[in-house]
Design goal:
561 residues; alpha/beta; 6-stranded parallel sheet; 22 helices; binds thiamine diphosphate; binds magnesium ion
Length: 561
């Protein structure tokens, strides 16, 4: 009889999982034994990757999925390990990462004849009234495996739910006794439903409304989750003459395209008479900008109602549930049909939109010049970085208040640029570990704030990368502060005590941390970069060092804001 834990390892491999990001504990012993057995016998199994903090494990799974598209698995220790995945769970939820998070569970039995029974005080301490409750608002689905013979069915179901649109994290609790019981009959992979295609009538109406508009604008966030959609979106925007506003969770549109306004297109949005929102989590922030009240608001999204965001109440005129990778080619075809009588008008508005965007791009270029308006800040460093990056590099961006600067200055290609897509900080350096394991052939650079770097548990992330032979370069935009946590104080209390006394409690990260020493302590290397002109050669050295197997930290000295 095969033990249930051995079946689990075989099922993971059969589901297409290549890496098991894990941190073991007392209750994972049967799975560790099963991995050792599979290794010895040459049975297909995922490569286990020791992550010395659970936050790194789940972040690595998110990063692996971004590059590989494969389902992911994380294995952590009971309730404590579950809690330690922490904010990475929020990021997995908001990114729709198809990840099955598995945790042990304290054994039930004290009967010494039951394999896996309680044999330590911690089995009482680590048992919670409802371990699954900690995961409930974040996971799509969660279940305990009550008996070894049901393990296969439950784990197969977890992968099916995780990989069905809208995709997302699932949680499976594995009591030690169940893992040590005989497994059940062999199971097979469950069918994934096809992704949704747009309702043809709805799509026709949407195309008509766009065609009739005078000042259409496109808003997106993650259309580039299918890199092939980027070219289609470019053609649609060119055809309509519609500028593109972007949150850039993924690389959605070429940054230098004359219709690309990035995050600087508020005036275009405020003047639009039709807005097409494609795969955007938050299309605009009404307190800052909104389309005019009579504008037609159109949406294409895999999950348009966003039921996991309690107050998502953007007043759409027409919403289509669809995978944008399916919908956009159909929309392009529908617009080409409608174009026949309208090409002249569409070309005219394209020229108008390009003129407006040209002004925005001119500002970006000025910001990149040392000695220009933001010479003191990150943009000249980022512009120099962009010039030095090889085209194939994978870039992970967690630059916080310098995020818009990254969007302006880093012009990367589809499928090679990713943001956290959610605000729980500490994503980038853990995600880098998984992304590198998914694509060991590609160099990788993570750009993060000094705060974001520390939230990523850097000793754990860098050492884990070192051990797993997944080296990458981190560029820390080091302003020695939580600038993002200071800004709201200045905005909400412009005349307040904090402003009058220039005292912003707990936003300064001094005394300085020695990030180069930290990198060396974890088996890596590092260098301080204090001038934009030094960026290119420092990056060249860093990439060469990473190619030889070491993580490298470039500590970019920015003035404290
Ligand atoms: C896990 C987590 N904790 C706290 C916060 C709140 N927070 C948002 S931005 C920020 C500061 C980030 O600092 P840094 O990465 O240095 O970027 P900067 O603001 O300096 O650009 C903090 C603490 C968060 N988003 N996520
Ligand atoms: Mg900072």
């Amino acid at each position: 009889m095969t033990e249930a834990a051995a079946q689990l390892v075989e099922i993971l491999a059969d589901e297409g999982v290549t890496h098991l990001f894990m941190n073991p504990g007392t209750d994972t012993a049967p799975i560790q034994e099963a991995l050792a057995g599979a290794r010895a016998a040459g049975i297909p199994h995922p490569d286990s990757v020791l992550c010395i903090h659970e936050h790194v494990a789940l972040s690595a799974a998110i990063g692996h999925h971004l590059l590989s598209g494969r389902p992911q698995t994380v294995l952590v220790h009971v309730d404590a390990g579950t809690l330690n995945v922490g904010g990475a769970l929020h990021n997995a939820q908001r990114n729709g990462t198809p990840v099955v998070i598995m945790a042990g569970r304290s054994p039930y039995s004290v009967d010494r004849s039951v394999p896996g029974h309680r044999d330590s005080a911690i089995h009482w301490q680590q048992e919670q009234l409802d371990q699954i409750a900690a995961m409930r608002t974040y996971a799509k689905w969660a279940m305990e495996v009550p008996r070894g013979r049901e393990l296969g069915r439950i784990v197969r179901r977890a992968f099916q739910v995780a990989e069905s649109e809208p995709t997302g994290p699932c949680y499976v609790m594995l009591p030690r006794e169940a893992l040590m019981e005989p497994g059940g009959a062999p199971t097979a992979r469950l069918t994934r439903p096809h992704p949704p295609a747009p309702d043809p009538r709805g799509l026709g109406r949407l195309a008509q409304l766009l065609a009739d508009a005078d000042r259409p604008v496109i808003v997106t966030g993650r259309v580039g989750r299918a890199p092939e959609s980027v070219g289609v979106l470019v053609r649609i925007s060119e055809l309509l003459g519609a500028p593109v506003l972007d949150d850039r969770d993924r690389l959605n549109f070429p940054g230098e395209h004359p219709l690309y306004a990035g995050r600087d297109g508020n005036s275009l949005l405020a003047d639009a008479d039709a807005v097409l929102v494609i795969d955007s989590e938050v299309p605009w922030v009404p307190a800052l900008v909104s389309p005019p009240p009579d504008a037609v608001l159109l949406q294409i999204d895999i999950d348009p109602g966003k039921p996991r965001m309690p107050l998502w109440d953007f007043p759409m005129t027409l919403s289509l549930t669809a995978d944008s990778a399916i919908a956009l080619p159909l929309l392009e075809a529908a617009l080409r049909e409608l174009a026949r009588s309208r090409t002249e008008r569409w070309s005219r508005r394209r020229l108008e939109a390009e003129a407006a965007v040209a002004g925005i791009h001119a500002q970006w270029r000025r910001a990149a010049e040392p000695g220009g308006p933001s010479a003191a800040a990150a943009e000249p460093f980022l512009a120099a970085l962009d010039r030095a990056l090889p085209p194939e590099v994978v870039l992970l961006d967690e630059a916080v208040t310098n995020r818009v600067a990254c969007m302006r200055q880093l012009h990367r290609s589809p499928g090679r640029y990713f943001q956290a897509g959610a605000p729980s900080l500490g994503w980038a350096i853990g995600a880098a570990v998984g992304a590198r394991l998914a694509r060991p052939d590609l160099p990788l650079v993570a750009v993060c704030g000094d705060g974001a770097f520390n939230f990523g548990v850097p000793t754990a992330a860098l050492w884990t990368a070192h051990r797993a032979a997944a080296p990458f370069v981190t560029v820390i935009l080091n302003n020695r502060s939580y600038h993002a946590s200071k800004l709201p104080v200045t905005r909400l209390y412009p005349q307040g005590a904090a402003m009058r006394n220039s005292d912003f409690p707990e936003t300064q990260l001094g005394p300085a941390l020695d990030y180069v020493a930290l990198a060396r302590a974890c088996g890596g290397e590092g260098e301080v970069v204090s001038q934009p002109a030094a960026m290119g050669s420092a990056l060249e050295r860093a990439l060469a060092c990473a190619a030889s197997g070491k993580c490298v930290v470039l500590d970019v000295t920015l003035p404290a804001p």
